[in-house]
Structures are given as structure tokens and as C-alpha cells.
Design a protein that fits this description.
Distance between the termini: 59 Å
Order of helices and strands: HHHEEHEHHEHEEEEHEHEHEEH
Number of strands: 12
Largest sheet: 5 strands, mixed
Number of helices: 11
Helix content: 40-55%
Strand content: 15-25%
Radius of gyration: 25 Å
Shape: elongated
Structural class: alpha/beta
Strand order of the largest sheet: 4-3-5-12-6
Length: 300
């Protein structure tokens, strides 16, 4: 298949009609039809069933779509790069982060990085780890940071910083001398703030409690660690959160203690295995690592 064939094929697979593909590609409908016919002629088989003006992919088309997806992404990337070079556009770095790190670590990292890269454009988005993997694989981001290693064959996970899960409670809950000592599940009391059932770190906390023969009852369940921290700072109860969320809390409004037995937490830099980082992106990753480690030191 030629590159033009692949481009037209992918457009039809995405929109399902000749007219829609023509609009996406900014070419005429007869041109799309001609390219598709030539593509099927070269392959020696029809790729779509025609039913009342709509195209339905055959099984062979689905298999072909999977195999040509990366090539199509690369083609789009080359065209975007060529357009940027032609217009003398500044470099754009696309960073994706989980919400926790975007709030607790990235403001400091990006401020420091910006001093050396004042003219580089940075696009920051937040997603959960599953969405981040898809974003990297589709070439829609250059790098990402997450508290999870997705263990995906197409994703490289590089550790940047590490800490342990931390118990946070409203200020005045413990004597100041006790804050440096770990707290077990037996020390949880009062109102407890938990995490959603599908949250990986929340599952680790519940498993650790049950291993200590404690079955916690969470009065409030939240979707993000930042909400849990805000509730604790407002005096709504205790929570077990990641160390970055705990360290970035207000010392006037909450206290923190390490969870026991310790649950190690890593901050990972995630990149697509086939996409090496530019110099600016690599420096941004380094700044994120430094900011993350500094965040944990401030929380000690």
C-alpha cells in the first residue's frame, strides 16, 4: 500500500463514508473513491462492504488497520513537523500527568525548567494512567508522569522519585513527637476518607488493613487524592494518600505520618518506546524528578 492509500484507508475506517473521508482529507469524493479502488485492486480483495452509501469494514480491513496504524501516525507526525519547520514554529513539548502530580509537583518543575527554556511551548494535560498509555501510543504526547508503571510493551517507565504511602489527619490529631513514627491500621480512627474501588493505591491500603485484621469503613469515598487532602485539611477525617499529595498539604491544617508496614510509591516518567525525547523534553523530565524529590524533602 502506498502512503496515500493508507491515509485514505484510515480516514474511511474512522468516519465510515466516502463523503466523510473526503471532508477529513480536504479532497473530492471522486478522488477518495479512485484511491480506494486502486488500493483494493493492488491488494486483490475488497476491504469494505457497500450498503446504502455506507462502508462497512470487512475483517481483513480491521486487521490491516491495526498493522498500518503506527505508520499512519508517523506520517501525520512527519507532516506536522514539516509544517512547523516551514513556519519556523517554536518547539512544542506535550506533557501529560496524573492530577496528583500535576498539582503537587509540576508547578515547581515547570517554573524551574522555564528559566532555561523561555521560548519553548509546553502543553500540559491531565489524565489517569490508562488514558496516558493511549495518549503516548497514539503520539499525542511526548512524555508523561504517573505513580503507576503500566507495564505496557510499548511504554518505557523510568523511576524519578520514590516515597511511601502516608496517613494524613487534621492538625492537632497527634502529638508533634508522634508524627515521625509510622502508623498502622490499628491507629486509624474517627471518620475515614477512602478512594474509589478501582483506585490502585486505594486497593493497596485496603489490602494492608485487612492483613492487619482491620476492615475499615470509609464514610466518604473520593476520586482523587487532592480531594481527600482538602477534606482532611477541612477537618473531615483521616486518609491514606500518596507521599506527594501529603507533602504538598498545608502544615497548619494537617499532620502526616508514614503508613506501616510501608507501601513504597514510585513516580515514573513514561514515554513511548519508539519516540526518543528531545533535549528540551529531557530537561523537563529532569526538572520534574528534582521537584518531586524536593517535594518529599519538604514534607519530612
Amino acid at each position: 500500500m502506498r502512503l496515500r492509500h493508507i491515509e485514505v484507508f484510515h480516514a474511511i475506517m474512522q468516519v465510515g463514508t466516502i463523503s466523510g473521508a473526503a471532508q477529513v482529507l480536504h479532497i473530492s469524493q471522486p478522488a477518495v473513491t479512485k484511491v480506494l479502488q486502486h488500493c483494493e485492486l493492488q491488494l486483490g480483495m475488497p476491504l469494505f462492504e457497500r450498503v446504502r452509501g455506507k462502508l462497512y469494514p470487512k475483517p481483513e480491513a480491521h486487521r490491516l488497520f491495526v498493522e498500518t496504524e503506527k505508520l499512519n501516525r508517523d506520517l501525520l507526525g512527519i507532516r506536522r513537523l514539516a509544517a512547523s519547520l516551514k513556519g519556523h514554529a517554536v518547539e512544542t513539548i506535550r506533557l501529560v500527568s496524573t492530577p496528583t502530580i500535576a498539582i503537587s509537583v509540576l508547578p515547581f518543575a515547570m517554573t524551574e525548567w522555564r528559566r532555561d527554556f523561555p521560548h519553548t511551548r509546553c502543553q500540559l494535560a491531565t489524565h489517569h494512567t490508562g488514558e496516558i498509555v493511549n495518549t503516548l501510543r497514539l503520539g499525542e504526547a511526548d512524555l508523561a508522569v504517573s505513580l503507576q508503571d503500566p507495564r505496557h510493551p510499548g511504554i518505557v517507565a523510568e523511576p524519578l522519585a520514590h516515597g511511601v504511602m502516608t496517613v494524613i489527619a487534621p492538625a492537632g490529631t497527634w502529638h508533634a513527637a508522634d508524627c515521625g513514627t509510622p502508623l498502622t491500621a490499628h491507629g486509624l480512627n474517627g471518620e475515614l476518607i477512602g478512594h474509589a474501588d478501582n483506585d490502585p493505591l486505594g486497593e493497596l491500603v485496603v489490602a494492608a488493613c485487612e492483613a492487619q485484621d482491620i476492615h475499615p469503613v470509609f464514610s466518604t469515598v473520593v476520586q482523587t487524592y487532592q480531594i481527600a487532602r482538602s477534606l482532611v485539611e477541612a477537618g473531615a477525617g483521616m486518609a491514606v494518600v500518596d507521599p506527594f499529595t501529603a507533602a504538598s498539604g498545608s502544615p497548619e491544617r494537617l499532620q502526616r505520618r508514614p503508613w506501616a508496614p510501608a507501601i513504597p510509591i514510585q513516580l515514573y516518567l513514561l514515554t513511548a518506546s519508539h519516540s526518543p525525547l528531545s533535549h528540551g523534553a529531557r530537561r523537563l523530565a529532569d526538572s520534574i524528578g528534582v521537584a518531586a524529590r524536593n517535594c518529599l524533602e519538604r514534607g519530612v
